[in-house]
């Protein structure tokens, strides 16, 4: 792990991972020649990076980004074609990526996605894992599973309908409807679409706002919202009770509550 602020390759696996002095962890997909497709080494590196972030209390914000023209084209189709046992290969690959996504989902750390290019298939799972998703207006989004005869993975069947609604999700999954970035924003798949030249500034401003907010309150808020999908109302109330008691003892809460003294 590189904590110098530089994004360093994770053992040549196609993932850059760094944590800067502000506590911003950056995960960068670095397989531009393969449209940043998810293969087993990259999936393994994602799991290791998420575990490392989870063990580091200094991390305040996570940024997901990618190099090259594509953000992420989903699973590595060439690896699927080459696999001698495709069923086992897909089971292991999906299971590994799902472990990374589930670990990310449990973190009390806000996640920002900087989407510079097209997103397809399992790449949508990365977008849906982000709490703030900002895309260049030239980006577009598709499920792409039907084109290769596969069913959804990476949480797409669970989170896409929650984000855009069941009917729109089914249009994307069954009809292969591809949407542009402004439409993705209108459908709440992402937060906003911006001109490509403004993407980095917009992402930087979003990160700065999160860093300026109360810690750990904002991270716990995102964790609670995401945990609510798998919790009963009573379980969620219990989690909220425990969490507000914990955040109430934080320095950020003490400083803000002191204004009302």
Automatic annotation (TrEMBL):
<keyword id="KW-0276">Fatty acid metabolism</keyword>
<dbReference type="InterPro" id="IPR001753">
    <property type="entry name" value="Enoyl-CoA_hydra/iso"/>
</dbReference>
<dbReference type="GO" id="GO:0006631">
    <property type="term" value="P:fatty acid metabolic process"/>
</dbReference>
<dbReference type="GO" id="GO:0004300">
    <property type="term" value="F:enoyl-CoA hydratase activity"/>
</dbReference>
<comment type="function">
    <text>Could possibly oxidize fatty acids using specific components.</text>
</comment>
<keyword id="KW-0443">Lipid metabolism</keyword>
<dbReference type="Pfam" id="PF00378">
    <property type="entry name" value="ECH_1"/>
</dbReference>
<dbReference type="InterPro" id="IPR029045">
    <property type="entry name" value="ClpP/crotonase-like_dom_sf"/>
</dbReference>
<dbReference type="InterPro" id="IPR018376">
    <property type="entry name" value="Enoyl-CoA_hyd/isom_CS"/>
</dbReference>
<protein>
    <submittedName>
        <fullName>Enoyl-CoA hydratase</fullName>
    </submittedName>
</protein>
<comment type="similarity">
    <text>Belongs to the enoyl-CoA hydratase/isomerase family.</text>
</comment>
<dbReference type="InterPro" id="IPR051683">
    <property type="entry name" value="Enoyl-CoA_Hydratase/Isomerase"/>
</dbReference>
């Amino acid at each position: 792990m590189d904590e110098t602020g530089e994004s360093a390759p994770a053992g040549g696996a196609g993932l850059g991972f760094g944590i800067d002095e502000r506590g911003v962890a950056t995960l960068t997909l670095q397989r531009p020649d393969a449209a940043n497709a998810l293969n087993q080494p990259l999936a393994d590196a994602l799991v290791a990076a998420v575990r490392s972030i989870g063990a580091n209390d200094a991390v305040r914000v996570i940024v997901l980004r990618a190099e090259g023209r594509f953000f992420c084209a989903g699973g590595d189709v060439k690896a699927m074609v080459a696999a001698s046992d495709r069923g086992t290969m897909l089971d292991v690959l999906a299971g590994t990526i799902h472990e990374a996504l589930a670990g990310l989902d449990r973190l009390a750390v806000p996640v920002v996605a900087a989407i510079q290019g097209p997103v397809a298939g399992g790449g949508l799972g990365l977008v849906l894992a982000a709490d703030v998703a900002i895309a260049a207006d030239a980006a577009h989004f598709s499920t792409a599973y039907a084109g290769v005869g596969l069913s959804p993975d990476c949480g797409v069947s669970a989170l896409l309908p929650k984000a855009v609604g069941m009917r729109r999700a089914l249009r994307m999954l069954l009809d292969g409807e591809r949407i542009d970035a402004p439409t993705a924003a209108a459908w709440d798949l992402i937060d906003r679409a911006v001109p490509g030249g403004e993407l980095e500034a917009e992402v930087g401003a979003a990160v700065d706002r999160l860093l300026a907010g109360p810690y750990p309150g904002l991270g716990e808020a995102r964790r609670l919202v995401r945990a609510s999908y798998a919790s009963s109302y009573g379980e969620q109330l219990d989690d909220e009770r425990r969490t507000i008691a914990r955040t109430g003892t934080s320095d950020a809460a003490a400083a803000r509550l002191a204004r009302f003294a």
